[in-house]
Design goal:
It contains 17 helices and 17 strands. With 460 residues, it is an alpha+beta fold.
């Protein structure tokens, strides 16, 4: 989730047209398209397998302080606490930030190739390992915490999380689990125009359940199988219907920036950030804010920083900012963290691949797309749409992405192109088993029902 920092206050928004223009300003020519990868992981104490508190000599803050001291990151503070890290001066390593339950996230820099993404990831993991080993801390790559109850999961000292924690139980029965016990891989990609944005948004929404099935990696809750292959994906189905979901309106005639603005305006607010503090505006209307009638700040109108904050509190399967965020994959290990962006880049950054992907999904109805989304958490590759299994569709999607990456022809120093990052998905589809299914086989086999083995075997 976003980390807000203080800065000069900008001019108040004068009209809805400015909100539309905010999204229009994100359009870029293909030569300027970039790849941003965000990935989360769970920290744990190696000796006890306990989650990390924020404070203390073996806590989250100690990790952040270690990254500052050893690698030159710059701390972002809130209320006297380090809540995020900016890159060292003169370099761009992205931003390290905290999720509500102590999940550590790297919001990667906007990069040109997947080879750069791999190098960024490897550097980040090396830095985390160096700091973590000195503290007796490991990192786990799964989509949902496999052992700890919600009560055992610590909280992080960020003002926005306190507001969200109070609001979530009012709107969905698993919203707190989403906040405190889930982890994901997210890919941020650019668009050239409004029409290009709409096409990519539609492909992304339709295929997000397919990618979620391929990435399924969260079969355990509180030490036992939970009945799902991607419980993280199931949790999102019960988080907050006002701000999540498949956006069926995106497939209707007339879809564009204006329609998305109207959607976001109807998403209830969480907060307003002023002078280093979060003001509770949960359930209030941004439309009222535009009119100067927000109960939390009577007579005050929002600026573009407020709009950017509010956009970040909508959580659809694909989110529009000044780029598109693909949000549907479970967290995993190093290879999975690269496979997900590779798939989306192959599909969306090559015109022929985008056209082929659109042809694949354009006849699916809203009801079919939703039924697929509902089935994938439990069935993953065994779910169906249009009489076809997801495993069959995923193989077709992978072929399309492979062709897109081949035509991009971005090679590393050894002459290897970006298709190498799809190898894990190829093996998965050849074998017909998700990582979640492999974990369950181990749980029922050589682990003898002891889920704690996952901390060693799925450590990043």
């Amino acid at each position: 989730m976003s980390t807000r920092q203080d800065g000069p206050k900008s001019q108040a928004i004068a009209s809805r047209d400015e909100l539309v223009a905010y999204f229009e300003a994100g359009a870029k020519p293909p030569s300027e398209w970039r790849i941003g990868t965000e990935h989360e992981k769970f920290g744990f104490l190696k000796a006890s397998l306990a989650p990390l508190a924020y404070a203390g000599p073996e806590g989250v803050r100690a990790i952040l302080e270690g990254l500052v001291q050893r690698f030159g990151y710059r701390p972002v503070m809130e209320g006297g606490n380090i809540i995020a890290l900016r890159s060292p001066p003169g370099v761009d390593r992205g931003t390290v930030s905290l999720e509500p339950g102590g999940q550590l996230e790297l919001s990667g820099a906007p990069l040109t190739t997947l080879h750069e993404t791999a190098a960024e990831l490897d550097q980040h993991l090396d830095e985390m390992k160096a700091v973590g080993e000195a503290l007796g801390i490991g990192m786990l790559g799964l989509g949902f915490s496999p052992l700890w109850s919600r009560a055992e999961t610590p909280t992080m000292p960020k003002g926005r999380y306190k507001i969200m924690t109070a609001y979530m139980p009012k709107v969905g029965r698993l919203g707190l689990d989403m906040m405190y016990r889930s982890a994901t891989v997210q890919v941020n990609l650019d668009f050239e125009s409004e029409a290009d944005m709409v096409k990519k948004l539609r492909v992304g929404l339709a295929l997000q359940p397919v990618v979620a099935a391929m990435a399924a990696n969260s079969p355990f809750t509180e030490g036992k199988p939970n009945g799902y292959l991607s419980f993280r994906s199931e949790v999102w189905r019960h988080t907050d219907p006002d701000r999540t979901g498949m956006l069926p309106f995106a497939f209707e005639p007339g879809m564009g920036y204006e329609r998305y603005v109207d959607y976001v305006l109807d998403v209830p607010m969480y907060f307003v950030y002023r002078e280093g503090a979060y003001i509770d505006a949960s359930g209030q209307s941004f439309r009222d804010f535009l009119a100067g009638r927000l109960p939390a700040l009577p007579g005050e109108r929002p600026d573009m920083e407020d709009w950017a904050d509010h956009i970040s509190t909508a959580f659809p399967e694909v989110r529009l900012k000044r780029f598109l965020e693909m949000r549907g994959a479970d967290a995993g290990g190093r290879d999975r963290t690269l496979e997900v962006p590779a798939l989306w880049v192959g599909l969306l950054y090559d015109r022929a691949a985008l056209d082929a992907a659109y042809d694949l999904v354009k006849a699916w109805s809203a009801e079919e797309r939703q039924a697929l989304r509902d089935a994938v958490p439990k069935l993953a590759l065994g779910a169906q749409i249009g009489g076809r299994a997801v495993a069959e569709i995923a193989a077709q999607v992978l072929d399309i992405a492979d062709g897109g990456l081949a035509r991009r022809a971005r090679t590393d120093g050894a002459g290897v192109d970006e298709r190498v990052y799809l190898d894990g998905f190829r093996r998965l589809l050849e074998d017909g088993k998700t990582n979640a299914e492999r974990l369950l086989e181990r749980y029922h086999g050589r682990w003898q029902g002891d889920v704690r083995h996952v901390f060693a075997e799925e450590a990043i």
